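Before relying on records like the one below, remember that each one covers exactly one chain. Contacts with other chains, cofactors or solvent are not represented anywhere in the record.
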Amino acid sequence: MADIKWIKITTDMFDNRKIKHLRRLQGGNDMALIWVMLLTIAGRCNAGGLLYLTESIPYTPQMLANELGFPDETVENALAEMEQLQMIEEAGEFFRITGWEEHQNIDGLDRVREQNRIRKQRQREKTKSEVKPCRVMKKRPERKQEADPVNKTEEATCGQVVDLYHSICVSYPRVRTVSETRKKAIKARLKAYKLDDFRALFEKAEASDFLKGANARNWSATVDWLIADVNMAKVIDGNYDNREKRPEAAAKPVAPNRFHNFKEREYDMKALEEQLLNR
């Protein structure tokens, strides 16, 4: 890992349309901060935008959440949105900043990387010359690992969840790619929910006018939003169900009069007065 102490960030970064889109989302300011922190990690790795703990240990969303100090769901949602906006991409088991060259002085980073390579090479040669010969132990042949049936079951279940989403949520955009981030999110939910719970989630989402854009912001939910832990619980609990209009208040009953609602007689008061005076 090259010893990099700085990265290049432009002063108009927050005028970028993708950054503005992120900040408009729920928890968007946290997502923007996570993006800047990912840039610093990529600069520290100095490996063409790759993000890793070591060159052989890639970051997982949970590892990033622990290192950046955010809840797992926040980091998973941020990675999903950034991947959708093509701000990050998956390179095998690694996350990589898309268009890393746009963010940094590549020539300067290459010089640091070359200097670091030469320094490591000299260090290895020095260590090799100081090491005493030792007896070579025969290495036992490694056993071939059989395919894990649990992983196959999880892969099949992820596909079932996506198929269930397509068959029920016809008003929402289709899932074109099942990325590793989405697989991890689905597998995480499957530890607490069954396939029938996903059916209930998608049926409620399809029936909800609010989640389909009938709100003040014209915001619509996505599959990544629906399968986030907190959001899935809220939708299943009915927080986004359509609300029925309240019936109009019934007319108040007329209070009975003191004669128990018998029709009162009408009198000509002037005529009565004249009769009394003429007596």
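The longest strand covers residues 50-54.
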